[in-house]
TrEMBL record:
The keyword Thylakoid does not apply. GO terms for molecular function: methyltransferase activity. PANTHER family: TRANS-ACONITATE 2-METHYLTRANSFERASE (PTHR43861:SF1), TRANS-ACONITATE 2-METHYLTRANSFERASE-RELATED (PTHR43861). This is Methyltransferase type 11. CDD domains: AdoMet_MTases. The keyword Protein transport does not apply. InterPro entries: Methyltransf_25, SAM-dependent_MTases_sf. The lineage of its organism: Bacteria, Candidatus Fischeribacteriota.
Length: 256
């Protein structure tokens, strides 16, 4: 199961091709799920009106725009121009203002600006451990003193217990196949994604780091954040070894 791999280089253009991603994921990540998650996030984070929120790796803006509709001041950052274009059009259609910024999360330069930073839908762990730490340190700098990070990732323990070696999404005659392999030594999932659409085949290899509770707590501590809670979902279900996802909350110190 363990295999040596080169330094991970995440293919954002391939994995997050806006046309393919929206084609296969848009229905699954629709209004019903998004509205439910935003309602739960508001309660989980005890968000006050006009909270300043950074949605890091915001994708096509499904959470950012809903949070803006709820009266919050939202900034969305993503590296993919096509996602940001969709997000801006959606915000305009809904009549809300969201500041969308194209940037690499390793290079953001916000300082003491946000009450909350969101990292949702496994948008942390793209890089090697050194670069992932750089992301967390940027998050710490972006938060106001006392601000909170909400991070939503795969739960390594539950993922290993319920490992699926092949996952297929179908839409009409088209399909997307993931064939992941978990590397115990690096803690990474290495995947080869095959998209077959309109008779054309595209292969996109990529990997992502997974974390145990202990590992993620240690990382957050090193980045200058104190963990204040961890759960299975946004509705505060207790985390168990069966949990497939890990939601962790961490606060920046008030003296910083």
């Amino acid at each position: 199961m363990t295999k040596k791999h080169k330094k991970p280089e995440f293919d954002f253009e391939g994995v997050f091709d806006p046309e393919d991603y929206m084609y296969f994921y848009a229905d699954m990540l629709g209004d019903r799920l998004t509205n439910q998650q935003v309602e739960q996030l508001v309660q989980l984070l005890n968000l006050k009106k006009s909270a300043k929120i950074l949605d890091l790796a915001c994708g096509f803006g499904r959470h950012a725009n809903r949070l803006a509709e709820a009266g919050h001041k939202v900034t969305g950052v993503d590296i993919t121009p096509g996602f940001l274009e969709i997000a801006r059009k959606s915000a305009e259609k809904s009549g809300v203002k969201v500041k969308y910024v194209q940037a690499d999360m390793r290079k953001i330069i916000f300082r003491n600006e946000f009450d909350v930073v969101l990292s949702l839908f496994t948008s942390f762990g793209y890089f090697d451990d050194k670069e992932n730490m750089k992301v967390l340190k940027n998050v710490t700098k972006a938060l106001k003193p006392g601000g909170i990070l909400c991070i939503d990732v795969l739960h390594r323990d539950g993922m290993v217990k319920h490992f699926v070696p092949c996952f297929v999404m179908e839409k009409g005659d088209d399909f997307m196949i993931d064939r992941p392999m978990f590397d115990l030594e690096s803690g990474r999932i290495y995947n080869n994604r095959v998209v077959m659409k309109e008779g054309k085949k595209k292969n996109t290899p990529f990997s992502i780091r997974t974390y145990t509770v202990t590992e993620l707590k240690e990382l957050l501590h090193k980045a200058g954040l104190s963990v204040i809670g961890f759960y299975e979902d946004f509705d505060k279900k207790p985390l168990t070894t069966e949990s497939r996802r890990l939601i962790m909350l961490a606060r920046k110190g008030t003296g910083e």
